[in-house]
Amino acid sequence: MHRKTEACINLEAIRANFALACSLAPQSKTIAVIKADAYGHGMLRVAEALQDVAPAFAVATVDEALELRRAGIDNALLVLQGVTTSAACKMAASRHLTLVVHSLDQVENLLAARVSVPVWLKLDSGMHRLGLTPGDFAKAYKRLEAAGIEVQVACTHFAGADDPDSGTTQQQLEFFKAATSEFDLPRSIANSAGILAWPKSHAEWNRPGYMLYGCSPFLVDVATARPLQAAMTLRSEIIAIRAVPTGESVGYSARWTAQRPSIIGTVAIGYADGYPRHAPNGTPTLVNGKPAPLAGTVSMDAITVDLTEHDDAAVGDIVELWGTGIAVNEVAAAAGTIGYQLLTGVSSRVPRIYS
Ligand SMILES: *Cc1c(COP(=O)(O)O)cnc(C)c1O
Predict the structure, then answer these.
(1) Phi, psi torsion values for 333, nearest 5 degrees
(2) Are residues 174 and 290 in the same domain?
(3) Phi–psi pair at 190, nearest 5 degrees
(4) Residue 171 sits in a domain of what CATH number?
């Protein structure tokens, strides 16, 4: 590569974060969520790094699961959104996938396909995005059982577990327990936030995603999340430096104006790489490990940062956008989004470098 813009991925950090998820819930099995290209970290590399310790992986789509199978990953694979056609059910069966079933339509598709696929049956416990009502859950369970389809797990998903004081999470837990108590099924409830802050949500299977990549799902400090190690460091370099006199503006729409004689560095990363277009002036970056706040609108291929406080910054110096020095959550908060979006949005133009 001729441009020093890269996402450095620390696979050992991901293994350590997986081990932390397991140790926080020693009674549970841990299914590593590696959908969306492992939250931007590279699904195949992450799967290879975890395949000897993770009993199963979860992805969102059958296509993601097929890519893992093609790469020779033979762990159990759970498709979190399930499928919408009988043809996809047949494909899932032929590749030994496990399907989440969250609607009666999916039950009918599966029965029409006349194949045997293990199923995780999903209850809507209050998020109202995917999942069956308690009545439909019972209907689906009976239909599948009668057809000889193995229902392996009863599952549900939290809407607000990232708020450690969330009342709705407590309600969801109670609703799920009540609705599934008549079934003798293993359960799966917890995402990263559940593992870290809601011990009551730990069940036979936990489903961590974001925490595997070293990020906390919480806006507040939560002690269990402190040992997480950031797995991706997004880096670039300074490609130009200029002096900007007081009163002159920098970048599109002149959104930053020098209040003093200033030094501005231009960095080879922009929104086409996944750096958030909405990051405002002052969003943190690090140049040679020292703060260099964003100064001016993010452009497609470049950003500009204030180097006035730096004595020795030069073209070629390394810039960290997020990672071990700046939490991705901090950049996300400045840009009005969440770290999940930033990690999954790092574009294909940015090479992933593994260590
Ligand atoms: C993405 C996803 C997860 C992982 O959530 P994190 O907040 O990243 O831990 C767990 N369960 C389901 C159903 C998901 O879609």
Answers:
(1) -60, -40
(2) no
(3) -80, 130
(4) 3.20.20.10
The whole-angstrom distance between residue 338's C-alpha and the CA centroid of its chain comes to 10
Q: What is the pLDDT of residue 161?
A: 95
210 lines ligand 1 (CB under 6 A): yes
Q: Residue 194: CB within 6 Å of ligand 1?
A: no
The answer to whether 191 touches 58, Cβ cutoff 8 Å, is no
Q: Judge whether 266 lies within some domain.
A: yes
* Closest by Cα among 80, 139, 76 to 107: 139
**80 ligand 1 Cβ < 6 A:** yes
Q: What averages of pLDDT result for each successive group of 10 residues across the chain (355 residues)?
A: 94 98 98 98 98 98 98 98 97 98 98 97 98 98 97 98 93 97 97 98 98 97 98 98 98 98 98 98 98 98 98 97 98 98 98 97
My answer on whether 254 and 282 are in the same domain is yes
The predicted structure's pLDDT at residue 304? 99
Residue nearest to atom 1 of ligand 1 (CA): 209
What is the full DSSP assignment across 253-294? GG-EE-SSSEEEEEES--GGGT--TTPPTT---EETTEE--B
Whole-number Å distance, alpha carbon 173 to ligand 1 midpoint, is: 16
- Nearest Cα neighbor of 95 from 57, 121, 48 is 57
Q: What is the token pair recorded at 186?
A: 């293993």
Domain of residue 329, residue span:
232-354
Q: What is the pTM of this model?
A: 0.97
**Residue 204 shares a structural domain with residue 290:** no
DSSP state of 201: G
Catalytic residue list: 35, 252
Q: Is residue 317 part of a domain?
A: yes
CATH number for 337:
2.40.37.10
Both 72 and 186 in one domain: the answer is yes
